[in-house]
Write a structure and sequence with these properties.
240 residues; alpha+beta; 2 domains
Length: 240
């Protein structure tokens, strides 16, 4: 019986050792968190590699929505890039993602981004301060950054937003303005408008498009969401 117990204990120890070995093999070389192994680099490289460039779309201030892009030169010659979709009128960071490209792929990415809006090259502290201030504004309204922001934000690393003295203005004509985008589901739009206009919400305006074919869905969901369905048209609203 004692031998059986020792054998079981030894087998468990071997399994644990194999798991630890496999875990180490999956981590990128050079230390840092294995969380970014899918990008083929370490967290430290993403946080501290030299900044390649930073861009801000002119549509952020002109139309309330646009990209902030920050890129770093990785030791292997590739370029790590984080995109932050900024909603300056309401939601702060509406979307975010991080990617690693070859220099040629990066240039293509920037060219495609420039097709929809003019990208102005800015300092990295300027870009970071714009992102942080947009988040602060949205949080005051009760909105958190997109769930993928945490991963994309690793590229902000050692950039010091305190080096930028620029003051940014958010909202539209002194009030939050939510404009639903083509990727916003109706349930998402409903939650945003409810936060802005119901109860202790901050007040504000909204422009939301609802497809007439989905009105039954709104009606079925009304009790669960405690929200009055929007009409089947582009709807502009204000404080309630």
């Amino acid at each position: 019986m004692a031998k059986d117990k020792r054998r079981i204990a030894q087998n468990r120890a071997k399994k644990k050792a194999r798991k630890e070995s496999h875990k180490k093999q999956r981590q990128p070389q050079g230390g840092g968190s294995g969380r970014f192994a899918h990008l083929g680099c370490t967290r430290a490289e993403l946080e501290r590699s030299p900044v390649h460039a930073a861009y801000v779309a002119d549509t952020i201030l002109a139309q309330g929505i646009g990209d902030v892009i920050i890129a770093r030169n990785l030791p292997d010659g590739r370029i790590a890039t984080s995109h932050f979709l900024i909603d300056a009128y309401c939601l702060g960071v509406k979307d975010a993602f991080i990617t690693v490209k070859s220099p040629r792929e990066f240039n293509t990415l920037i060219s495609r981004s420039s097709a929809s809006s003019q990208l102005a090259e800015v300092t990295a502290p300027y870009a970071r301060k714009l992102i942080e201030d947009a988040i602060a504004y949205a949080r005051d309204l009760g909105f958190e950054p997109h769930r993928d922001f945490r991963e994309a934000a690793v590229i902000l690393g050692d950039i010091d937003s305190g080096e930028c003295s620029e003051t940014f203005t958010f909202g539209h004509e002194g009030k939050p303005l939510y404009i639903s985008g083509p990727g916003d589901s109706e349930s998402f739009a409903r939650r945003i408008v409810r936060q802005l206009t119901h109860g202790d919400g901050p007040g504000g305006h909204y422009i939301v498009r609802v497809d007439e074919s989905s009105m039954d869905e709104f009606e079925d969901d009304e009790e669960e969401d405690d929200y009055d369905p929007l009409p089947p048209m582009t709807h502009e609203g204000g404080e309630m």
